[in-house]
Amino acid sequence: MTPRTVTVRVPAKVNTQLSVGPARPDGFHDLANVFLAVALHDTVTVTPADDLRITCTGPDAAQVPLDRTNLAARAAELLAARHGIEPRVHIHIDKDIPVAGGMAGGSADAAGALLACDALWGTGASQSQLLDICAELGSDVPFSLVGGAALGTGRGERLTPLEVGGTFHWVFAVADGGLSTPAVYREFDRLTPDAPEPAAAPALLDALRTGDAKALAATLTNDLQAPALSLRPSLAETLAAGTAAGALAALVSGSGPTTAFLCADAEAAHQVAAALTASGTCRAARATTSPAPGATVLTD
Ligand code: C5P
């Protein structure tokens, strides 16, 4: 019997290394993208319905499109089309990941909807078929499905899983309003006309493998940080406030404007989160940990 409802939990991500190459003829950029899933989650629930419908709850719900431009709707449509069925499903997103924040929230919803619809419809797609659909939906979507830690090459969609030897403690400072990812990449192109071909940094991979937070702090890099700061100069104040409060390292998360602070332990993370909240340089600050598992079915 097929289930009546399926709920999937999907993590956010931070990029511990985001090295960006020159723009390709297709407009995308080759990346060396070291993804780490973090324990902030969206929850996607699917239920049979007369037509494809999306609803959303959560603090940022008003910013989420509820039409077929939502990546979760496109995920359901693509899976249905591949299996010759109609996407008659109500997708409900309980959103805790910042919207347009550089934490792959939209990608998480797409991966979550895909896995949930696969279970609801009994389509039985293999992991590699699901990953193919994810890559068609967006560069970060495959990683949202698998979680943990991985090196993304190509435009970020070709994944090699990475070992992580411990728990890392992070604080994420949520900014007011989002930043457009294409706009941040365009600014990167303007600021970096001669970008070299990107490559993963061995020291960073070692730091992940050994679970050494200080070593990881020394190797975190994000090529989209300078363009994000150029478009949103006030983020420099948030980064400075987190560093002053004792974070081991501060950086823009992905294309921003969320900022990420790596901390020595859980206590330091709570102190940094409290200081960032009090600083008035961000809308909210959240302490969390990594790595986190990828999209996971909770009930079916
Ligand atoms: O793949 P996704 O739809 O998430 O990408 C959103 C936008 O980000 C792309 O349209 C492109 O402007 C930019 N991008 C890029 N190079 C990548 C990934 C994304 O230029 N590797």
Automatic annotation (TrEMBL):
**The protein's name in its UniProt record:** 4-diphosphocytidyl-2-C-methyl-D-erythritol kinase
Q: In which pathway does it act?
A: Isoprenoid biosynthesis; isopentenyl diphosphate biosynthesis via DXP pathway; isopentenyl diphosphate from 1-deoxy-D-xylulose 5-phosphate: step 3/6
- Which reactions appear under catalytic activity for this entry? 4-CDP-2-C-methyl-D-erythritol + ATP = 4-CDP-2-C-methyl-D-erythritol 2-phosphate + ADP + H(+)
Query: What's a Pfam family this protein contains?
Result: GHMP_kinases_C
Query: Which amino acid positions bind ATP, per UniProt?
Result: 98-108
Residues forming the catalytic site: 13, 140
- InterPro entries xref list: GHMP_kinase_C_dom (IPR013750), GHMP_kinase_C_sf (IPR036554), GHMP_kinase_N_dom (IPR006204), IspE (IPR004424), Ribosomal_Su5_D2-typ_SF (IPR020568), Ribsml_uS5_D2-typ_fold_subgr (IPR014721)
Its source organism is Streptomyces xanthochromogenes
List, alphabetically, the SUPFAM superfamilies matched: GHMP Kinase, C-terminal domain, Ribosomal protein S5 domain 2-like
Q: List its EC numbers.
A: 2.7.1.148
Give residue ranges for domain GHMP kinase C-terminal. Answer: 205-279
User: What gene is behind this protein?
Assistant: ispE
